[in-house]
């Protein structure tokens, strides 16, 4: 059939191919089978779950064709940013590429990687293989940073760049954003 109104025909075609059980929805398992990194590894479970949850308007653990179409646009945006950091076009971001920063890349969701603490933390916590970050982990990092940044901004009502929190408030803020 034809793509529904507001859904890119290519996204609709891919949705039909990914919807293996023909339920009209994409599950985490189906999404994981459809997405691959440049080294042909499938996206990790956590990234797929985060993305499904982001576009699941019914909280059913799956997305319809509209959610899938929006998800593909979302992935493409992050892939474009990923490619800016991947200076050698290897399909992964090395520690040195992360430190150098993306070519013209500066987004509110991605702190400046020239900050050594940020670069070290990102590399050590989210490496998918020694010394590099694949696209799925990059998306996961960006989503978690965005969520944490949003939580911080809710507390930083004066937009001054710092807040005063109790440890319990901090944990509550972080944990509720990661689920």
From TrEMBL:
GO terms for biological process: COPII vesicle coating. Signal peptide: none annotated. It is found in: Cytoplasmic vesicle, COPII-coated vesicle membrane; Endoplasmic reticulum. InterPro entries: EF-hand-dom_pair, EF_Hand_1_Ca_BS, EF_hand_dom, Peflin/Sorcin_CaBP. It comes from the Eukaryota. The keyword Endoplasmic reticulum applies. GO terms for molecular function: calcium ion binding; calcium-dependent protein binding. It is a peripheral membrane protein. This is Peflin. It comes from Cathartes aura.
């Amino acid at each position: 059939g034809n793509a529904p109104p507001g859904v890119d025909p290519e996204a609709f075609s891919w949705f039909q191919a990914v919807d293996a059980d023909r339920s009209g929805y994409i599950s985490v398992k189906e999404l994981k089978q459809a997405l691959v990194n440049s080294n042909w590894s499938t996206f990790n479970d956590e990234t797929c779950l985060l993305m499904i949850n982001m576009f699941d308007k019914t909280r059913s653990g799956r997305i319809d064709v509209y959610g899938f179409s929006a998800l593909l646009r979302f992935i493409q945006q992050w892939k474009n940013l990923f490619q800016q950091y991947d200076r050698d076009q290897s399909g992964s971001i090395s520690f040195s590429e992360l430190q150098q920063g993306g070519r013209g890349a500066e987004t509110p969701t991605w702190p400046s990687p020239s900050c050594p603490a940020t670069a070290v933390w990102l590399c050590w916590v989210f490496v998918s293989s020694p010394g590099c970050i694949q696209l799925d982990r990059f998306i996961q990092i960006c989503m978690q940073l965005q969520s944490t940044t949003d939580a911080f901004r809710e507390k930083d009502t004066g937009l001054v760049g710092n807040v005063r929190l109790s440890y319990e408030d901090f944990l509550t803020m972080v944990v509720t954003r990661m689920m």
